[in-house]
Write a structure and sequence with these properties.
By secondary structure, the protein is of the alpha/beta class. The protein contains 41 helices and 15 strands. A hairpin with a 2-residue loop joins β6 and β7. This is BTAD domain-containing putative transcriptional regulator.
Length: 918
Amino acid sequence: MADAVGGDVIEFRLLGPIEVRAGGRPVDAGQPRQRAVLAVLAADAGRAVPVEAMIDRVWGDAPPRGARASLQAHVTRIRQALGEVPLTFAAGCYTLGTDPLSVDLHRLRHLTAQARDPRAGDASRLRLLREAVRLWRGEPLAGLRGPWVAQCRQAWGQEHLAAAVAWGEAELRAGDPAAAVTTLADLAAEHPLTESLAAVLMRSLAAAGRPAEALAHYETVRRRLVEDLGADPSPELQEAHRSILRGPDPVAGPAQLPADVFGFTGRADQLAQLEAVLPAAPGAPGDGPGPAGAVGIAVVSGMAGVGKSALAVHWAHTVAGRFPDGQLYVNLRGFDPAGRVMDPADAVRGFLGALGVARDKVPSGLDAQAALYRSLLAGKRILVLLDNARDAEHVRPLLPATAGAVAVVTSRNRLTGLLAAEGARPVALDVLSDEEARDLLARRLGADRTAAEPEAVDEIVEACARLPLALAITAARAQLSGFPLRRFAAELRESGVDALDTGDPALQVRAVFDCSYAALSEPAARLFRLLGAHPGPDIGIAAAAALAGQQARRELAELVNANLLTEHLPGRYVLHDLLRAYAAGLSEQRGPAIRRLLDHYAHTAHAADRLLYPARDPMEISLGDGKPAPLADHRAAMEWLAAEHRVLLAAARYAAGNGFDAYAWQLAWGLDTFLFRRGLWHEQIPLWSVAAEAAERLGNLTARAFAYRSVGRTLIAFGRHDEARAQLQRAAQLYERTGHAAGQGFIQNTLGYLLGSQKEWTAALEYDGRALAFYREAGSARGQAIALSQFGWHHDMLGNYEEAIAYCRAAIALHRQVGDRRGEADVLDSIGYAHHHLGRHEEAAESYRQAIDLVRELGDRFAEAQILVHLGDTGEASGDPAASREAWAEAVRILTELNHPDEREVRAKLDAGSRLQR
């Protein structure tokens, strides 16, 4: 709480009489109405409160006529009293710029939230709740009246009540029930029908040696419930009553949990999900939202080595105090390397023994044993941890059947049967985040050692792919020596999975993976082996089928269920880095599969591009026989390329580096239109550079020229004009050697575009003319349309607007003849620009709107932004500032998404227009 008056820490108190204290000394909060204004601001500390809302809260439904002026006067006096604490006004709202934790209300909420955190141990939880309860000083907002005040008192009182109940439970677990009895009794007098409060008070009284008072209180509450509500006490209250009648149990419950996990870190979301399976107890914030009377079951699933057991055991230790009847644990060894899977009958018999059943009293047969086990758990608050289950049937006989008990199951499989039939809550576990992985190493190796070699730590985290088992093994090896961490990073870099061998099969990454792999069917195992060679970041269903040479849905589902593969998006699958390395090391003949995969990608990318740009010239390196994935229309093509383009980039690099040069070039061609229209130019340059090298190895001059010209065209977009010219000249030389007139026309046209981007419009027209001549020689109607279109634009830039329109009309006729809608959009933009500068603003706006409709349909984001800028300019010139701001704002949004440097210039237009409008 850094806010201060005159350098002193300031506190705002609302949970009782309204007070402001600076450095422990009171600050005059003024008369009641001023205190009300201050209370409204402090209750929303750090947030903007509209003036109208403040008037409603301070004066209620009938504010006086001068309420706004009075409010301003109160705010002025509050500013004077608070000194350095900012109290600002903007956009019709006041904001008290203090740290919310300087307000007792927000501190109460913060403390109780921390106490609910599953990572908080019992001692920490008790400390937090003690502090929270002490913040309450009586009736909140004492001395104030009104609907808002009454509403706050009611709501804040419930928050305090919940915190007090949780505090009472914590004191009970800590063995000091008397500490809470007086406060709980006072609250019970105010809230006689709150059963969670009555239950904790009764248990506290009994534990403090006052069972008669506890039973008397139960009778009082029971009678009030019947008389006032016509209801019986809740199961929780009845169980508290029965436990007091039974008296203390001399037999301690089982406590079978393994030791807590050394260096456990992170997993806040998963710990919270586990917390949610705790039995419901209304009003107790430490309990989960599960339905009353239901058995809480959670299934923690994830790949081998991801830390499922560590999570479950650590969480079990944090909540053990909530299960006074004990904790049962068994390792079912579902994926034991030696195949020693535990029979459920053996596990049940072990549990019966832990629950006090003599060996000669155990019935024969699993069904009878499970029935006795469930009977013994009935009515008990007991935690059952079933570790390393193979499948749902492996654990069903071990699940409790009545409320109060909680079961947590861990498995490498998802156990969807338990989710469907038993209503279990899934808790999916993935690898650690970068921060969690570094924290794990720091906890095990010491913060000083990891801080001394941050680069090595980052390398270790990356090499271990954030897998907890791999990180723990590396940390253990580093603990045994004083060698620099960079040595272990280098070893991981060189040896991969094999560097993570401890000699203990249970703590050896390859051996752990072996167990999961061995449980697969042969078709799924084969697909897993093939996936180890897949070059992209993820894979779709059709590509997996191409890789396998057959339908692969069932195998993909089996791999996902075994947590050897993750379906991170619907129909898209990703392999963890260490699993990829492991799969790649398994024996498999992959050559034909890779060829099928690249063939699938090249054919489908080509088909998608033809849907995006049907007027485009044919590909220089033709495809062989093959079948693309079905794509219905332009939209389907865009969606497929959007999903696959990162995979296709990786596939092109892989193909070029592994002797599949034709595929490398074809994939670059298939991606080109999509990348250009989406503004992903930074990906085009390295892609076409790889394609140029592949074409050189193939000895295909026109394919090389096409690659060079594509690199040159893209470099212009980045303003790298000298590099662009060098690439275009290399392409021109190759086209000249092969006599490729259309290619030479493209080069001249692109050189004209380059000069135009440097504002050398007259020189650009010369190259436009050369391009038109080459295109006519080649008989290319599309090329002639492109050249004429660029003629029109450069005449626009020179102010020759009527000439520009004439060239553009000739170009648009050719574009429509060949079906080039993208080229048509460019020409419409140029026509609109000419009309704008001739003062024909309606015609200009109509041309721009037609062009925008076309490029939006085509998915060309950069072209859309450019035309929107022109449309905004026309709106401004025609005296329609609202239309201009709307167009410029949309252009700014697109350019920001594309990370394009033009965004700054357009934003300046937008800001200037907004200032003029104001």
